[in-house]
Amino acid sequence: MPILTMEEEREYRQKFDKFFRQYGHLYKKNTQKFIKEKFIGEEFKAGNYIDIMSQIYEEIGLMVKYERDLYSEYLTYLNEHYDINRHLLDVGCGHFPAFTKKVAALQTSGSVKGIDDHLITTDIDGLILEKGVFDRSYDVSGIDMMYGLEPCDATVDMIRVANKNNLDLCIALCGDIHFNFYISGLNQDDYRSWLAYLLTIMEASLPDNRDYDMELVDFFRYPIIITFKKKTLIPVSNIII
């Protein structure tokens, strides 16, 4: 669990106050109250994550105090599995796109665009930000890869859009179930049924030149789904020695 000295807590509270003076008024009133109540609260002390708080913790440098910094771990995962120096789309980037900023800061080329219907600002240097809803008709022209950190309702459409456009995809799934209609034969209160449904969508829409994987990693509570192009074996002429 994160441990702060009294001096560190004082410094982080000062940084939080500065963040809140700049951005706090952009959150809804009830959300402002929630944020103030949860800052360095029981969830933080227990090492648990709340999305809206993690975004602020990352921005003020507090995320590194977690034993396993989720943002750093997920970024390392992305960087190990993909070339991030391309044009990326971060779906469900949150109220404040702190992880989007973190990805962009690691890039040496390319760009990162974030989209979320809860965005409180679209004016952050180095980022392309859109306050809106991602759905299956979303235009991904110019995008090379899509990713999401618990994108919730957008998950199914991310799979469909990425596969339709033959894009790399990496989704760190949330722990909720997002069926929006009844499916006969599936227990829609069962997370396993949700995962099975996602894999059905994946297999039905995946391009022939792609493969996918679903895996559990040690830094995240829920599965991560990735897609990638199949490796092409290049025939080599017989070499006579």
Q: Identify the overall geometry.
A: globular
Residue share in helices? Answer: 25-40%
Which stretches are low in confidence, meaning pLDDT under 50 for 5 or more residues running? none
Strand percent estimate: 5-15%
* Element pattern in H and E: HHHHHEHEEEHEHEE
Main sheet makeup: 7 strands, mixed
Over all CA atoms, what is the radius of gyration? 20 Å
Coarse structural class: alpha/beta
Number of helices: 8
Mean of all residue-level pLDDT scores: 92
In short:
The chain has 241 residues and is α/β, with parallel strands linked by helices. The protein has helices at 6-23, 29-38, 42-45, 51-59, 70-81, 98-106, 155-164, 191-205; strands spanning 87-91, 111-115, 128-130, 145-149, 168-172, 210-215, 224-229.
Task: Sum up the structure in keywords.
241 residues, alpha/beta, 7-stranded mixed beta sheet, 15% strand
Task: Describe the protein's topology.
Layout: H1 6-23, H2 29-38, H3 42-45, H4 51-59, H5 70-81, E1 87-91, H6 98-106, E2 111-115, E3 128-130, E4 145-149, H7 155-164, E5 168-172, H8 191-205, E6 210-215, E7 224-229
Report on this model:
Helices cover 36% and strands 15% of the residues. The chain is an alpha/beta fold and 241 residues long. The chain has helices at 6-23, 29-38, 42-45, 51-59, 70-81, 98-106, 155-164, 191-205; strands at residues 87-91, 111-115, 128-130, 145-149, 168-172, 210-215, 224-229.
